[in-house]
Amino acid sequence: MSFGVLGGTCAPDRLAALRTAGASVVELPMAWDRYQPQAGQVDRGYVAEVRARLNDCREAGVGVVLSPGLQYPPDWVRGLQGGVLEGSAGGAPKDAGAELVFSSEVRKAAQDYFARVLSDLGLAGITAIRVGTNASGELGYPGPDDGGKVGEFWAFGDAPQFGIGLAEGLAPSPMPGWIPGSRTWHGRSVTDEQVQRWWGWYAGSVVNAVAWQVGELRKLGYQGRVHVPVAGRGVLPEDRAVAVKGRLDGRANPDGAQERGLDYVEQFAVLARLPGVDVDFTGLDDVSNVRARAAAPPQDRCQPGDDAKVMEDVSSWSSHRYTSALARRAGLGLVGENPGPPDSPFTGGSPESHSLAEQLRAAPQYADECGMTMFLFGFEDNLFEEGGRAESGVSVEDYKEVIQRIRSP
């Protein structure tokens, strides 16, 4: 297993310290809105900044996981036809990635952006490229905290409902006008089969956007690994059955996975058909781990035989144990990262969450036990803050000790 950091800067002094600690890869984040602030216009200063960082990593012999930053679309992209998702209650997400799920125009813009990035930066030294669809850069639609109302689904614009400006290869809603939770459609009772078909379309459309990105990268000549960040467990099979019976009215939906369109059983099967794809679990030692560890017996750690049990009752398992087993079962590669500081945005922190120091102790071990090929610590800045351990509770020396312990048990 290789070790690295999220939010890398490729600063030479930090790279030297990370290499001494045993880390060999950094995630280098980019932002689409900074790269292409106007349609047809590239900010050459920003391009030069990213290229310089990438070159510093190359010269240091440190691999780069490139995050193109589609979760930060420029305003002109949001202004394209279908450029913003529309909710079932009329809402719009306050934070969202580029609307790559349904909008043909947004996909064309992203296609051009990918081509510019790979042409400007080159492929040397790039260990992997991350792709996703939501504001966190992960697979899925916006969640309950991203705007709109509780229980709002995100496929109600002209493209998904009527096919106007719909991305190639997608079908419009099999039940146009039907809103999850409704018992009728066009004056008739809605059947389980209809709800299941609508759910399959909704979840299938969002994973199609990820598959499309992988395909575009391959067309541009990139043949390396592609990381697809995922969080949580998605909709468990037993919960999906209950949700369908309830017409997706909010039952059996403890963490908003239904609105996010997360059906990992089916979606991982789609990803497994794409060469070179790794599932990147973003919540090693998240709240679910804390709770699963407290169970009797503990249910937090990956165990031999999990792949065969993953379709049984796994409600007591930690999220990473379930999702890792599901990915292995599908034949996908696995990488992982801890959530990061529990009081930071997008980390899913709660009063139950472990501190960053506790995450550093536990998360790499979880990654090792689950057979992951890479662990990325969140985040680089936390290892190098002024004052070091006094500020964040961790330091690069702490990371070194963890890496040495795992490599020399």
Automatic annotation (TrEMBL):
**Region annotation Disordered: residue ranges?**
332-356
Matching SUPFAM superfamilies: (Trans)glycosidases (SSF51445)
Gene3D superfamilies this protein is in? Glycosidases
Record's superkingdom? Bacteria
Q: What is the name of this protein?
A: Glycoside hydrolase family 42 N-terminal domain-containing protein
